[in-house]
Design brief:
This protein is α+β, with helices and mostly antiparallel strands. It has 6 helices and 5 strands; from the N terminus they run αααβααββαββ.
Length: about 190
Amino acid sequence: MSPSLVALLRRQWPVVGALVLFLAFMITQALIFNPVARRYDAVLKRGAELGIGLDPANTPAMLPPRVFALLADHALPAADAQERAGSGALTAGLLEDLNQLAGQHSLVVLATEPGPVSQDDGSVRVRAHLKMRGTYAGFVTWLGEIARARSLTAIDRFSLQPTEGSAMQIDLWVSRYVLKQTGSSK
């Protein structure tokens, strides 16, 4: 080596050291860290395809187990839900459940009337109109029983009219949701 080159390198040793260190880091990055990062990305992609959220930024929201169980209990295959809604079986099931509960709470069902059935891509909503007679306390406990039941039944509206004695005339509109299952079940 020429003495002038050696003297130049001696004066510029910080720059030469930085370049050597930079090259060492680049080689290490290319040989070690890039393959590890590619494997990690591949694992994340495979996990996402399987429904396992390994990336905290892309973790799917999970339903609480009780909510999932409630929704699963009130879901039918889409074709079955549509057939039962069209035949009136879902409305009949709603009316049967309400009549049974009414009998347990000393309410007398005077008349039942099926309501309109509405369907969309994900659910079926059946409606019914009931006329009942009973005490206010019996009606309140009946409502409490419906609220505690594991069903997607809603009281849309009701009216109470006093009659003779302690009995009341109850006019009630009720609806129940049945979810349509989508996708394949294994």
